């Protein structure tokens, strides 16, 4: 069995309220094992036979729509991928953990798309950005709440959806994996 993390976007924000108990139950009904939620923002740890994560992402997105009427992006990563998202983030250790994020993406953007993101964001804020494997590393130097670097802004430039977690949350999730 492989240990996975499912990261749900748009859970418990914008009216998409869902208890973590209900989310755990949905996973258990689908026969996933050792299901555990971490923080009330759509982080689910589970065990399952090793398989490509894109199929799991589609399954969970469908499950959210069918069971809870929530259209959610879902990123699924293995323990090794979560560890890499923390260890390879160039801003971990230099920025505040609550401001340093990994934005998990549904696909790997073309380098030209990342360059467009950088160009379009120039002069809009002090955020620092770096590309990783199926993720974007961000240091929201002045805080996330005041930033113009929103998920919608990122999605339009990179051409793919994503969901972000800060370094503090990822360290907690990784310790539980």
Automatic annotation (TrEMBL):
* Signal peptide segment: none
Record-linked Pfam families: DUF1697
UniProt-listed InterPro entries = DUF1697
Name used for this protein in its record: DUF1697 domain-containing protein
Which SUPFAM superfamilies does the entry mention? SP0830-like (SSF160379)
Lineage top rank: taxon: Bacteria
């Amino acid at each position: 069995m492989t240990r996975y993390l499912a990261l749900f976007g748009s859970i418990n924000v914008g009216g998409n309220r869902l208890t973590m108990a209900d989310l755990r139950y949905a996973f258990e009904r689908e026969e996933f094992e050792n299901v555990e939620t971490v923080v009330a923002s759509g982080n689910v740890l589970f065990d399952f036979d090793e398989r490509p994560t894109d199929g799991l992402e589609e399954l969970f997105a469908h499950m959210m729509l069918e069971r809870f009427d929530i259209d959610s992006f879902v990123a699924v990563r293995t323990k090794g991928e979560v560890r890499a998202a923390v260890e390879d983030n160039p801003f971990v250790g230099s920025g505040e953990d609550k401001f340093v994020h990994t934005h998990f993406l549904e696909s790997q953007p073309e380098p030209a798309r990342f360059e467009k993101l950088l160009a379009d964001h120039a002069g809009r804020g002090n955020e620092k950005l770096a590309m990783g494997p199926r993720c974007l590393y961000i240091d929201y130097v002045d805080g996330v709440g005041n930033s113009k670097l929103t998920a919608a802004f990122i999605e339009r430039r990179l051409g793919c959806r994503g969901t972000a977690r800060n370094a503090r949350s990822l360290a907690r999730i990784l310790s539980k994996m």
